[in-house]
Amino acid sequence: MVLNISALRKPGAVTAEWLRERLADTRLPENPLNVTLPPGIGRWPAALRESPGTALTPAGVLIPILERAGDLSVLLTQRSAALKHHAGQISFPGGSMEEQDRDVAMTAIRETREEVGIDPQHVSVIGYLGPMPTITGYAVTPIVGLVSAAAELVIDRSEVEFAFEVPLEFLLDARNDKRVEREFEGHSVAMVEFHYEQRRIWGATAHMVLLLRQYLINK
Fold it and tell me: Is residue 20 situated within a structural domain?
């Protein structure tokens, strides 16, 4: 079924129950390294096209959707400038899979607790997106979770500068897409970004948002 996009623009159209219904048939990937290459990869510079063929490290991120008085927002973080990878970038909480993690969903929930202090008891996993490669050598599986209003944030400043929220309906509305060209090793690459209250959401994080939107709307 293809959802009428205009229906999403009606106040209250996007609810927690609607999300559960749309994502009900998603499953945790059996192999977290079985990545799906992004569309248009044939037009990417060689360095980007060849990256998925290298050894990847499995990783999981949580797309935390906060419920407050019927309103839904997505929690994002700005990573610490002192980190080795993706320093200062906007991202979802998450990280690489560790030996004690049963699966990448556990990775995402563990990392979320470590980075922003959300207790697992306040997270209800409602869906999964497929693993995607990053140019830094990770196979990232996005886990979609509803976070209760009772959850409290405790930011680990060694990993996260700050956290902020973006209304889910803003991210689901294609009118808010910013199509840009970014330079990578002398090549121009077409990308989509989101600009919300002077925050720029781009790169792999923006791509995950687009994947979630595509699944919710075009299912």
Answer: yes
